[in-house]
Amino acid sequence: MLPAVASSLMRRGPLMLPQPRHAEKGFVLPLAIGTSLVLLLGSASVHSLALHSHLRARSSWQDQERQDQLRSAAMAFLGQTNTPAQRCLMEWPLAQWPSQAAHCGANDASKLNQGQAGSHRWELLDWQPSAQGAELQLRLGGSESVSSLSLSRAPDGFQLRDGLQAVQP
Fold first, then answer.
1. Model pTM?
2. 149: which DSSP letter?
């Protein structure tokens, strides 16, 4: 019986295995392109986040530098008020300085209207003293914005308080 099975298999021909399907051809290239696109978009968003962070840090640094320049200008202004005549003027609002100059013995009240702090010029826009302190408005040279600083009274005149408010021109 075994020789009969062998002879019948030999008549049929060699045993053929099913051929693999070729429908999956070319799936690697679209997969690689898709992966590359995802990586490209991911790196672009990381780059934009880094750029945004850099711009925000730069803006913060510029704001701090501007505040420092304004505080220096305010200190330079206060440094110019070292004579008794100028200290007398500091008790009056800026609008009354011309009329009070003779009373205070100040020759030229306009000397307090501008000055220089380091490499920056400043201009006095307003001075409003009160019983507790004063409000000082300055403009740095080349700037359109007005900044207001609060000062408190000290035994020897006025001193800066913390804080800076930007006032629109």
1. 0.65
2. E
CATH of the domain at 159: 3.10.450
pLDDT value for 3: 64
Residue 11 in domain: no
DSSP 8-state symbol, 14? S
For residue range 75-92, list pLDDT tens digits in order: 888 888 878 888 888 888
DSSP code at position 106: -
Three-class secondary structure of residue 3 per DSSP: helix
Residues of the chain above pLDDT 90, percent: 21
Question: Contact at 8 Å (CB) between 125 and 145?
Answer: no
Residue 51 domain-assigned (yes or no): no
The number of domains in the chain is 1
Mean pLDDT of the chain: 81
Tokens standing for residue 126: 């307003």
Task: Give, as one character, the DSSP assignment of residue 50.
Answer: H
Question: Which residue range(s) make up the domain with 131?
Answer: 70-169
| CB count in 10 Å sphere of residue 147 | 23
